Amino acid sequence: MEQWVRVRTEQDRQLLKWLIETIGEAAIVKAAHACARGDAKPYLSTVCRQLGVSVPRLSTQRSHPGEVGEQHLQVIYHILQCPRTHARTGL
Questions:
Q1: pTM (predicted TM-score)
Q2: Distance separating alpha carbons of residues 30 and 50, to the nearest angstrom
Q3: Using N-to-C axis directions, what is the helix angle for 25-35 and 10-22, rounded to 10°?
Q4: Measuring CA to CA, how many Å separate 52 from each of 45, 46, 55?
Q5: Of the chain's two ends, which shows fewer C-beta atoms within 10 Å, N or C?
Q6: Is 47 exposed, middle or buried (0-12, 13-18, 19+ CB in 10 A)?
Q7: pLDDT, tens digit, for every residue of 6-37?
Q8: Which residues contact 19 (CB under 8 A, 6 or more apart)?
């Protein structure tokens, strides 16, 4: 479906998923073609207007923090626990 509409964020992906489940792929493609200008793909909000659908508020929060974030927090915690051996003098 991303070949027919602009999908740039996780929220866009969630909205597209919701549209597919609610409206169906065929209706989305038809609306995307009606909204397209030249070679540019339409935004999902434009497709929703074409379909007469109100955009729901979708949660973008994840239930579990990502591994990368957890790793960074562990490094920060380790840095904060180390004694200050290179403290500046003369301040």
A1: 0.58
A2: 10
A3: 120
A4: 10, 10, 10
A5: C
A6: buried
A7: 898 888 888 899 899 989 999 999 999 998 88
A8: 28, 44, 47, 48, 51, 53
